[in-house]
Every structure is written in structure tokens, then in C-alpha cells.
Recover the amino acids of this structure.
């Protein structure tokens, strides 16, 4: 019988567990998504994660073998021991030995990584980051996630807290961020930042399609939909979002001389309206040599980046 060597990737979020079985060349053979059911407790969620892997292996058929399991999880991870130290979106998950618990349930080698870092690895290995050894992944959504690849590896920092691009200060007296500090990148380019900018522009009485939508119901998606219809307020807001993003990227470029920045996440659907201004402001914010080196590109793997990156981690960290 021919043995098919596969790698499992799991992306554990507050809402869903996404999992997949991948071949070494990054092809997804089996894909699953089930509700995380975090309110039922840590053990329940760990059981569900293990079941995803077992079910997938069964579905892959005779001859399929899982060589390793990678997990991406939204929270602060102690990488070496695979312990989730804290996770704001997973109630009760503090100092959870994810690696040990899953190894016990599966009898397979398990590696655990922060989800933004896993997404960065996914894009690096099989997506928009291919060929760049120094790369920053930025995920734009409600929050702004970051994952840093240096010399082809995730850079964890001293306790695993590196790569928090969203909480770099770009204006010391700027708007309040969800982290409680002022003027973070996220306070400008996260969901709340974008919507606050819309509201400020509408105050001056300018016409805009966005007026039709109640302020409490507006989303960044509405802003990009309005931009597609050539709404000037929406176009300006997205261009300014790009400008702030570029300042953050410029600072990273100065410090680390990165080659590529991969921008993904929900808001990134509006790429066409902000990446140009991102590139322009990056040129202003970074020193010439560092600025000229950086390419800013759209992510390619969408919502699967974390799961794919987790599987890649399992291939490379055996
Ligand atoms: Zn912040």
C-alpha cells in the first residue's frame, strides 16, 4: 500500500475551529470548520479539536498517515512548550497546555503557535510571501494582527509577544485604542478607527452614500462598497487608512529592513482603495534604502492562512 504522508493544521478561534489535512506541497486535501463551543469548557474544545483531526484522517482513507499536527490559536503562546498563556477571546483559557493535551488525545506530535504568526507562516510558505525571507504579515479586521518572519522563521521575541504591529504607537496623543493606550496603528486602521474617520467627515455635512446607513450599523465593508461607487468620503477614508498603515510599515522597515509586507484580513477586501497610499506614505516614513526594498502586497490565502500555516509549522518543526 502507498502511504500518503499528511500534516494537520488547526486554527482555533473564539467562534470556529478550522482544520485541514495538507500534503507537503501545501495542497489542502480535507477541510473542516466546526463551532468552537468555547462556553462548554477547555476540555470540550480540546476534544473537538482532536476529533477534527481523527475524523479527517478517517476521511482521507486507507494509507493516509498524519506526520504532525500544528495549531494556531488567538492568544499569547509559549512556543517551546506549546502553552497558551492567555487568550482574550477564549474564556477560561489561561496557562493551558495545548501541546501536551492534544498529544495525549492524538498520540501525534503537536506544535502550537499564535494565530497571527501561523497566518504569516502560511502566506510565507504558500501564499503572497513566497520567496521573501524577511516578511511582515498584517491582518486587518476588528483588530490589527501582525506576524513577523525573520530569516524564514517566526520571530517570537523574548516571551512570545513580538509582532504586535497593531499596537505600535504612531501618534502619541492620538485616539484611544482598544488596548487602552493612545495612537496605536489599530486605533487608525482597525474597524473602529475607520468608522470614526467616516463619522468625522460626515459631521461637516458632506454628501455621502454612507449617510444612509445608521452610524451604529456601519461596517468597513460598507465603506469599501461606497468607495466602489466612487463615494468621495469613502475613498478619502480608505486612502487615509492606507496612509496610517504606511507609517507603521515604514517604522518596521527602518528597524528590520523587511522585503515584503502581506496585507490580509476582512478590511483588506478594500485593498485597491488603500494600498497605493500605503506605498506612498511608506516612502515618506522609511529611509530611502529600506523603503525601496519593501513590497506591499495582498494576501492570497484568505481565511485559510492560519490553518495552512499551522500545518506548515507541523512539517518544519518536527
Ligand atoms: Zn493599541
Amino acid at each position: 500500500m502507498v502511504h500518503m504522508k499528511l500534516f494537520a493544521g488547526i486554527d482555533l478561534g473564539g467562534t470556529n475551529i478550522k482544520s485541514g489535512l495538507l500534503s507537503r506541497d501545501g495542497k489542502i486535501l480535507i477541510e473542516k470548520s466546526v463551532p468552537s463551543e468555547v462556553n462548554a469548557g477547555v476540555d470540550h474544545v480540546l476534544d473537538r479539536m482532536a476529533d477534527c483531526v481523527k475524523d479527517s484522517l478517517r476521511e482521507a482513507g486507507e494509507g493516509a498517515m498524519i506526520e504532525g499536527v500544528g495549531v494556531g490559536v488567538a492568544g499569547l503562546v509559549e512556543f517551546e512548550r506549546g502553552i497558551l498563556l492567555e487568550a482574550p477571546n477564549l474564556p477560561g483559557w489561561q496557562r493551558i497546555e495545548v501541546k501536551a493535551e492534544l498529544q495525549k488525545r492524538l498520540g501525534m506530535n503537536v506544535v502550537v503557535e499564535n494565530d497571527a504568526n501561523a497566518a504569516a507562516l502560511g502566506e510565507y510558505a504558500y501564499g503572497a510571501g513566497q520567496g521573501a525571507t524577511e516578511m511582515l504579515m498584517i491582518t486587518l479586521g476588528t483588530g490589527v494582527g501582525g506576524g513577523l518572519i525573520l530569516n524564514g522563521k517566526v520571530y517570537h521575541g523574548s516571551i512570545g509577544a513580538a509582532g504586535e504591529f497593531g499596537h505600535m504607537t504612531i501618534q502619541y496623543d492620538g485616539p484611544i485604542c482598544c488596548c487602552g493606550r493612545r495612537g496605536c496603528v489599530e486605533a487608525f486602521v482597525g474597524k473602529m478607527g475607520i468608522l470614526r474617520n467616516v463619522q468625522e467627515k460626515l459631521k461637516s455635512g458632506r454628501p455621502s452614500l454612507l449617510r444612509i446607513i445608521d452610524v451604529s450599523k456601519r461596517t468597513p465593508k460598507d465603506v469599501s462598497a461606497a468607495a466602489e461607487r466612487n463615494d468621495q468620503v469613502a475613498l478619502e477614508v480608505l486612502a487615509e487608512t492606507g496612509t496610517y498603515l504606511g507609517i507603521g510599515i515604514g517604522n518596521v522597515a527602518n528597524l528590520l529592513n523587511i522585503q515584503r509586507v502581506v496585507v490580509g484580513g476582512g478590511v483588506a477586501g478594500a485593498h485597491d482603495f488603500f494600498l497605493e497610499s500605503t506605498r506612498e506614505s511608506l516612502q515618506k516614513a522609511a529611509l530611502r534604502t529600506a523603503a525601496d526594498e519593501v513590497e506591499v502586497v495582498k494576501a492570497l490565502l484568505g481565511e485559510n492562512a492560519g490553518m495552512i500555516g499551522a500545518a506548515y509549522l507541523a512539517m518544519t518543526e518536527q
